[in-house]
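[Q] Does anyone have a clean structure-token version of this?
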Amino acid sequence: MVRHPFKLAPSILSADFARLGDEVRAVEAAGADLIHFDVMDGHFVPNISIGIPVLQSLRAVTKLPLDVHLMIEHPERYIEAFVKAGADSISVHVEACNDTRAVARLIRQFGARSSAAVNPETDVREALRVADELDMILVMSVHPGFGGQEFIPASLDKLRYAREELERRGLELDLEVDGGIKVDNVAAAAAAGANVLVSGSGIFGASSYTAVITQMHQRLAAVDLLTP
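[A] Here you go.
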């Protein structure tokens, strides 16, 4: 299996929203590679989070790429606004798109990296079907909508299949995993093929962001060393 550069993406869904700018600065200083920004509409998922004005505010406080995850219905209506607000990459759910290929093209058209996400109950082939229009595939390893859930072990098989299929087709996509990622399972997810690893409570729930991000990077480095 070819290894792609590992990236840690703290999910601000688990951050202290009363001091969100400081939280983002803190994980950036601690060694984060991306900032994962979850958007929920209360329809596609049973929760409501944050949106365009907050993204625009965070763009002003960090130089890290902003990895926007749209857990919303009709995502195509909001692509341009999220890119203008500072999104570097945008993930849309195949379950929420009538035409995932067209939405992926739209994301690229507006200048961001395009990504298709799949829920735990969705076959990853639904994202692989449009992989030629994508820069990344996002595998949800929890049911989307709320932070702090436990990692679903079957996600590892989904990651392995996706990475093997991408390599078979010669496609150099990032493979992202989101949900329940912590120090004790980050290496397993990486060994299965994920190279972008989202962690919410696993990072923001730690007493030291620097210590936990350093630990995660060390475990990821060990996976690299074990690669044939």
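[Q] Thanks! Anything notable?
[A] Residues 140 and 162 are 13 Å apart (CA to CA).
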